[in-house]
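Quiz preparation item.
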């Protein structure tokens, strides 16, 4: 069985579609400034392209893939506060997203080439407990640990899988306009 580059056109959607959470009402969806930007629905690409390689199971991936200014952005939306996000799920999706990209989008590129352009962004909802972020940051300072990259993803950057990793609230993500320019 050979790698075959997938036709991406059916997966080219608005960013808001990739951030949509089915079990939430419209008022509870993540409010995105760049909601109309066109990205690729990486979850659907993974479903279409990885089952044959993974015992008829799709790889779990990030929600969106976006290419701009020489970077490949992998964006995972979690419509829940930081303290409710499962770190092992985020790590699995991050790593698998690189594989999905190599299998379906850039089959002629090596894994090393894929990682040289990879930027991971995990977007989560602000906690309803106002002091949660302050407590987390205080514990990080006491432990002399950088708390800006969450979910145990630091190793993915230090090992070169991603050139940059951002774990941010939706409010901070909305300020990241350079991604879409």
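Solution:
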């Amino acid at each position: 069985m050979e790698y075959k580059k997938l036709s991406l056109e059916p997966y080219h959607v608005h960013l808001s579609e990739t951030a949509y959470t089915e079990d939430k009402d419209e008022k509870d969806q993540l409010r995105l400034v760049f909601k109309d930007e066109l990205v690729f629905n990486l979850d659907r690409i993974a479903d279409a392209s990885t089952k044959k390689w993974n015992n008829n199971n799709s790889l779990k991936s990030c929600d969106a893939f976006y290419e701009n200014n020489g970077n490949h952005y992998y964006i995972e939306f979690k419509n829940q506060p930081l303290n409710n996000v499962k770190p092992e799920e985020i790590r699995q999706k991050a790593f698998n997203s690189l594989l999905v990209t190599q299998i379906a989008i850039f089959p002629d590129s090596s894994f090393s080439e894929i990682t040289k352009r990879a930027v991971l962004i995990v977007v989560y909802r602000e906690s309803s407990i106002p002091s949660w972020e302050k407590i987390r940051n205080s514990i990080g300072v006491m432990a002399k640990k950088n708390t800006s990259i969450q979910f145990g993803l630091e190793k993915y950057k230090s090992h070169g899988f991603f050139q940059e990793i951002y774990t941010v609230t939706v409010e901070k993500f909305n300020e990241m306009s350079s991604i879409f320019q």
